[in-house]
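Sample A.
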Amino acid sequence: MTEESFRLGYLPGVTPAKWAGIWRDRWADRPLDLRMLTRAEGWHALATAQVDALLGRLPVPDPRFWHAIVLYEERSVVVVPQDHVVTAADSVVLADLAQETLLAPLDDPLDWTRAEGRPGEPARERPATTGDAVELVAAGAGLVVVPQSLARLHHRKDLTYREVTDAPRSTVGLIWPRVKAHDRIEDMIGVVRGRTANSTRGGVTPQAAQREGEAQREAKAKRDARTQHGAGKDRAGHGRTAGGRKAGGQGATGKGQGRRGR
């Protein structure tokens, strides 16, 4: 008899193909129902039990109701027109965007509270989605900083992107409810954490996974603090923008002596 399917939601930019393949190879008789959802849809689907777990972006809105384990961290990039000055560099820092108009989509997955605030001049209006923000970049209305996977998802031939080394990063995790969890959640935890097919199903409890997730988030907070401290010293020591580097022949264009050389 075929088991009830495990319903796994995932957000734009998150790619579940690898984990879905492992699941189906191991348990052909346990259907996996993949559902791509927007950020708002994802949390609503979890709250109303329309999905059993979500591959989403952390932190969770209320840890009292959700278990979460960290899977990976994404670097952030700024999406710009192909001929923008920052394309002369391999990467930039937030200070390089201080004179730019920065778009802030309503579904922005980045947590700017741990940075010194969003750089640049705010746009007059906030686009509804990241996809809308990318369209506005193409129209010349400003720039947008997003996780790299979203820049790739909304790729256009007339746009490109560069890493912003001191921007907040997006953390992707597996999220599931603390109560009424699906019987097969342990199997999904094992898949995303890389456990082998021979590992015991009871090897990791949701409580242990939560403790590990909290430890990983604490470690990430410490890394963010060190990154911000280092970025602050860099800005104090150099105090230049991407445009200034290009005009001066250093940094953006001086690849032998700029970021790549370091």
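Sample B.
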Amino acid sequence: MKKARKATGTRPPAKVRVEEMPDSILDGTVEGVDEPEAKTSAWKVFVAVALILILIAGIASWSAYRRDTQRDENQYHGFDFVEAAGGLWVTQIQVGDQPYNIPFYHHPRELEDILIDSTATDPLLRGAPREVYISVDPDAGSKVVIAGVEIARITGSRYNLLNLNTKSALSRPADGGVDVPIVTCADASADRVVLLFQQGPENMISREGSGCVVLSYTDVDESVRVADLYAYMLLRIM
């Protein structure tokens, strides 16, 4: 019996055709194994970013809506009002090519309870007075003086509006002999308009004769409200 010949050298590896390999190996996946964690994490990041963008867009839309709503609420007879520091209300008045931002202590809606005579602005807006006197009681206090200034800046040249020769006056003599003229409704005429501040039982703007306007207030704080209302009337806002 012949002995088997011993094999020499290394046996070559078996060749495997590519077409016989499973698709799962060729595309880098293995059946029965979950998607890689990297893909899952990427999807989570995408969803999170999308949610954040949606949230930001929603907040921006809501803010814009609130701004528009607030602007509409603050508007009065076509005039836009913006609330400023210190509780002031500012509106813009265009005089020719020059805009003026004019502050007031009160929004027009806060003054609608005050009684008015619709002809109270006629001595100033329909007439052509040479001078305007804003007359206050000498013991009325600083608040009433502020009320007078509220009107003087509209009748005078502060904002280039009426540009009338506006002066201060007292409604009766003051203790100590202050060098300020005494002017009342008795001194009023078509050429000399008197705006008389006086304390009374109710807040009211009325007219006496052809050249006198009486601004009645219940207390000194209310005098500024009455003054703002008359200023709005002169600007044709109210």
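B remarks: The chain has five helices and nine strands. The helical segments are 23-26, 37-74, 122-125, 142-155, 220-234.
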